[in-house]
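Appendix B. Chain record.
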Amino acid sequence: MSTSTPPRLPRTGDTEQTAELLWKAVSAADEYAATELVLRLLDEGTDPESVLLDVIAQVQGRVGEEWAANRISVAQEHATTAINERAVTAVSTHSAARTAVTRGRITVACVDGEWHGLPARLLAEVLKLRGWQVDYLGAQVPTPHLIGHLHSTRADVVALSSSIATRLPTAHAAITACQAVGVPVLVGGAAFGPEGRYAKLLGADAWAPDARTAAGHLAQERLPRPASDHQRFDDLPHLGDQEYTMVARNSATLVRSVLTGLEDAFPAMRAYSELQRERTAQDLAHIVDFLATALYLDDEDLFTRFIAWTAQILVARGVPARSLPPALDLLDRELKDFPRAVRILRAGTHTLTTAPFTAAGNIA
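Structure tokens predicted for this chain:
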């Protein structure tokens, strides 16, 4: 266990200072200090929901910011997240968090392929505190397994979480499948876009930006049972052009073709090490995945936001973001017969060439 003297807790309600104490513990990989801190908060009367959302969730948000700024590694990000998860467990097992079931039954899960499980876990714990009987299924739940669970439990609601936008086609399938067995779906997570724009597009029954809002919405309004005759492609008639299907199916071929062409389009790449080439291939795979998702939704804003974010990440890691426009141009040539794909790619190039960091020499 930690042998250091426990820090003095800030006065009740000063969650910003308390979150800073937790950040120091998790960033030092001190799981004992982290769990001791949250348990002391509960022992001294801090509301469990506040510990979860105003302390632990705030620290987890900072973890993502630190990774994006290249101040912590992927391994450190995973380690700090694991400690935050243990802190959540410590809160959930404390006597202050024991709440009688006074509401219905809800299933909380991440869509298949979504491995960011902590947001869903936080929602599950908040719903327990609000009196729900919660079945928390965790990260990466295959849709058939989710539906099998619903058949056996007769849940009143499903809450689906996704942080990665490329999982939205899978989320759409899960939403439709849950509704087909008569269970309404509330969704949340960064994947669903600003103000939850993709939640409505994909036919979800409700959307919430955070756990408090989700719990409040469910307390105020019972979600009606959905119609069982709704079909997934009723929401997205543009998929009839097959552009999404073709790009998604041929993503590996597209990555290889662009990677080969980049040596001529971006000569600096010829001096890349094997590791740099591997990372470039990974970046290209992400670009193609986000292009496919933008095609699925017919939303170029999703792609341009991702491209701008990618440029910032590259710059933070000392990689010239000027390699991105040539890559998009090569994809444009490969997909010249796909008008929606070309439109989206050119919107991405426009974003890169007009972004504020152009003047600083990061791209131009």
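Further analysis of this model is presented in Appendix C.
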